[in-house]
Amino acid sequence: MDVRNNESASRYELEVDRGMAVATYRLKRNVITFIHTEVPPNIRSQGIAARLIAGALTDVRARLEISHDLSVRRLLYRAPSGGA
Question: CA dihedral in degrees (75, 76, 79, 83; nearest 10)?
Answer without folding.
Answer: -160
